[in-house]
Amino acid sequence: MHARSFNPVGCLVVLGSLALACSDTTASSDTGGSGGTAAGGDTANGGTGGTSMTGGGVTATGGFNTSTGGMSNGGVTSAGGIPAGGVTATGGFNTSTGGTTSAGGAIVTGGTTDSGGATVSGGVTGVGGRTEAGGTTLSGGTSSTGGRTGRGGTTAEGGTTATGGTTAAGGTTAAGGTTAAGGTTATGGTSQGGSTPGDGPCDIYAAANTPCVGAYSTVRVLSKAYTGPLYQVRKGGGAKNTGTGGTTQDIQAVNGFADAAAQDAFCGTDTCTFSKLYDQSGRGNDLTVAKKGCYEGTASEDDYESNAKKQSVTVGGHKVYALYMDKHEGYRNNEATGTATGAQEQGTYDVAAGSGLRPGAGCCCCWNFGTASKDNCYGPTGMMAALFLGTGYWGSGAGSGPWYLGDFEAGVWAGGTGDSGYKNPNSPSMTMDFAFGILKVGGQKYALKMGDAQQGELTTAYDGNKGNWTWQLEGGIILGIGGDNSNSSDGTFFEGAITSGWPTNEADAAVLKNVQAAGYQK
User: What is the pLDDT at residue 87?
Assistant: First the structure.
């Protein structure tokens, strides 16, 4: 939670070095400072087109090239591309038992195709694409209009490079999918001959020079370089588990999506909870259940792990489980590395349940995803930079909510440079099933954007100057709670990432399109 001022629902007043806190039985409120004037927002349009080639080669039709399936099951195509042997010698994405298969793995018929690089029978598969300065657009295989987009795309008579259809950074990995943390499981947790996923949100951010420093999902792979488990579940530890007991198992990805069948086989009819969310950024900033904070009530108690069987949806046609979080549940990493500190720039996006899928969620303080203190306590405004989805007691937008707001500590903002009670008519209510939000902070500014994870474009609610606070970020990562472990709120998390640096508007739009191409459905 945050430092507070007195009001009817909950407060904390900071006078000199003294802090007075009060609260009702469910949550608390915050107020912020006053300051300069707001600057206008901006909008995000897709990237510009690439270079068209002959023979079905590499083409571009405009920033981002989506498809309906997210990731195809075919993997690297069987009609052209890499000579016998495929991308690597040891197997497809996240493999341990099948390696590269003749039906979906590396290509078996020889080098560069006569009619053009990327083929129309499968291409490089993916769950989205990259639309940033020449990035590869991969939205479920090579589309009918081309495969690679971007400013200054590859131009060649044959379309793709002499080495084949896949990119130098992609292909299958040599790691084989299992990790030192125990990715291989007795009940099928590892992928079996799965294809390499295409670009994910972290690949888009990396191409924009704002790499992920924390990336989490119980649904899908967010970076094509990542081959480890997505999350870990615990059975037999009880419904109110604070991080001990029972037995655990890592859940891998199959064809880029979480292996729900392995989870079902492991959990059976037992109580099962999410015991760990693995960081897909490569920094090892994994999230585990949060410990007690310095605020009162349930915030002063250790949190519980969330039910791993509570909510399932389909993404890209695959059954997956959401991180369905109730009150008194949260995850944290106070030892995170690579996250922004001080006034450094940072971006955050997430996909969460809107009120269409989970009515009434986010009522209180504070269902957040982003960064906060590293000591489980509150502090001055500017210590936090987290996306809040809900209604709460602070800023608001159009309609009745829920809204995406910025939790900066000692207040939660909908926009503007004044106090956190600002009502922003440019911030729409997130009444859809799957909500998409972006928060960017650093320097003298911040931005809030949001959209529908199934369709449409981004809305810029605010992009301008901050108030008279000073950014003094500490870089601890939180999910589902406030900086002081305020845990009176609830919500449903599917995926999200934190970046180093301020992502471009083009990257913002590309990540939304990537999420939409993944294919979220009830």
Answer: 31
- Cα separation, 365 vs 30, whole angstroms: 10
In the structure encoding, which two tokens stand for residue 200, read together?
Answer: 């994910």
Q: Concatenate the DSSP letters of all residues of 375-418 into one string.
A: SS---STTS-EEEEEE--SS-B-STT--EEEEE-SS-EESSSSS
Is 375 within 8 Å of 361 (Cβ atoms)?
Answer: no
CA distances (Å), origin 453, targets 351, 449, 519: 7, 12, 9
CA distances from 408 to 343, 427, 482 (A): 12, 17, 10
Q: Quote the Cα angle for 190-353-427, to 5°.
A: 135
* 197 vs 372: CA distance, rounded Å: 32
In this structure, how many other beta carbons lie within 10 angstroms of the beta carbon of residue 22? 16
Asked whether the CA dihedral 194, 197, 202, 208 is positive or negative, the reply is positive
Residues that are catalytic: 409, 484
Token couple for 326: 């109730």
Report pLDDT digits (tens) over 278-320: 999 999 999 999 999 999 999 999 999 999 999 999 999 999 9
DSSP type of residue 270: S
| SS3 annotation, 292-328 | CCCCCHHHHCCCECCECCCCEEEECCEEEECEEECCC
Among 494, 484, 221, residue whose Cα is nearest residue 375? 484
Q: Which residues contact 138 (CB under 8 A, 6 or more apart)?
A: 65, 123, 124, 125, 126, 127, 128, 129, 130, 147, 198, 199
Q: In the prediction, which pLDDT does 262 show?
A: 98
The yes-or-no verdict on residue 220 having pLDDT over 80 is yes
